[in-house]
Design a protein that fits this description.
13 helices, about 30% strand, eight-stranded parallel β-barrel, alpha+beta, six-stranded mixed β-sheet
Amino acid sequence: MLMLLISPQAKAEGEYAWPANYSGVMLQGFSWDAYDDSQWTTLASQAGELSDYFDLIWVPNSGKCSSNPSMGYNPVYWMSNHNSSFGTEDELREMIKTFSSFGTGIIEDVVVNHRDGVSTWTDFPTETYKGVTYEWGPWAICKNDEVSKQPDQEQPTGAYDTGDNFDGCRDLDHTNAKVQEGIKAYLDFLKNDLGYIGWRYDMVKGFGSKFIKIYNESAKASYSVGEYWDGYDNIVKWIEGTGRTSAAFDFPFKFQVNDAFAGMDFSKLVWKRNGSLDQPAGLIHMDTYQRYAVTFIDNHDTYRESTKFTGDVVAANAYMLCSPGTPCVFMKHWLGKKADIKKLIAIRKSVGITNQSKVTVLSTSRSMYVAKVTGTNGELVIKVGRGTYTPSGYTSADRVAYSGAYTIWTKVAIKDLDTVRPEVTLTPDSGIYIGGTDVTLSTKNASKDAQIIYTTDKTTPSLTNGTKVNPGTTIKISKKTTLKAVVCENNKVVSTIKTATYTTEYLPVTIYLLKPKTWSTVNFYAWSDTFEAAQLLDNWPGKNMATSTVVESGKTWYKWTTPKECDVVNIIFNNGTDQTVDITNIEGTHYFILNEPEEGKAITVTDVTDIYGGVTDVAAENVTVRYNGSAFVVEGAEDVVSINVYNMSGSEVAVSYRNNSVDVQGLQNGFYLYRVILSNGKVAQGKIVKR
């Protein structure tokens, strides 16, 4: 294997990359489709416990995407809309703020290789930040993007792509100065407005590494890591290409761990530095790149593919946490093996292992890997594998963690990282209380002078927002209420947010699905926490909705309303063969449309309730439609999303998108209904005559 040794290019090596001798541990706070585990409110409620063990938490891209739900990899909005499948922008800000108060930084999953349009392939949103307006067109798209093969779409005029192509969204032309300025503004917004401490760049193979240097030197984030899914030599080239302004995920480390455990050959956990010195495998085997290596056992992508780690999860994490590099623990592993991983993190932090700690490999063979690792507070010895080994100078009393697959010895006293923090207790907790209930707010582990701040309007309680009361206060709940509360001591919030929802009456859910053009059969399959599928509609594939259609706004919708006792429901739309993703935790009335299917994936949906639900509440003012002899023309608005024309029987007869007019030359003279939808969700509708 060729080992590249390249001199640094940066004016100040690693100035905006990853700290030297860093002792922190990172958590990937999500897995694929983990919309419940990774809600901003869910993460915020665990901030105390997570902050005891993790210094950084990597979360999904928080900007609004082109589908719902979305994991964040089809981004549309960068600065003006951070309401995502993981929560609202307010909840995001509060989550970041909560973790920051406990000393933990949040890492954003930044997706700037590509971008999606609002309603077409290329209609990027216009956004303003710090007084500067960013308005993009086809010039921002690489000329060899797949949209160039779509005759019905605007054609890209940017330069050729500087990296791998990404099918699904528009590949951005990073050579364009305007694109660069937009990305710089986006990163500035993430850091200085939302409060992110750094980011993980998605799919950095999609554009030149030199652009990372431009962006990071502008943003000056403390932490930057790139997803360069490749082997050692190419990852090193990428790090050097960034001027060492970014770290990289250590994919070679991950795949060596996969191979070692799959084949029970633990000699694969070792590579030779400079051809002679045994070191842990991966980027971390070279002291030059240990600082820039973020090690991991699995992530959201590898976990759902053939590259998923299938061996002993705890032993693999032990190897990672007792090695240099910055370890990133995967959410699924944390949730499944929390007690074991807590112990391993406590060992790493107690010994003082950093991303550049010295490793001396004591023994390596098919049956085991043994190494001494020196930290800032002492040293440890780790054995991975089933071979027999007793390190010199240690006894069984020095074993601080072990199983049949690994053992760790150290003479350093291991700290208990669990912190006892004040918390709010609510009696009773969340639930259904028909007619209302009284709730008592109390504290636990708090000082005698502690007070409670609470809100009932879904906003975040803080020193400047909410009602401050003494512990033991009782409040009356008479309607459906989300209660949020925190503990306050010495004019400082000292607890995570306690959230509870009280339901005082049953409000059924009503769901509309726009009739899909290509489905001859439409089934609704639904379930909830309190109802089985058979109780709501039917077992899989659910109920055929052929007889459950309504016409609203000139469109045909499939409609279903839950029993009144079911006020939260989950649903899947399907045609017996194809199906959507799980659409979960639906309350109230919602309108959905299917998105274009992607081969091999469940179909996503878009919630269009803001457009089709409650039109009378969002009427557009000063918008008129006139007939000019060939088209119906919208006047008084420049941000038209669509114009729909219907005959007097309610059937759609003409439509146009992203245009201020719709051609009606093929229609007979007579009266028609029109419906104009604007980008802000407002609607103008009325009657017009063609003469």
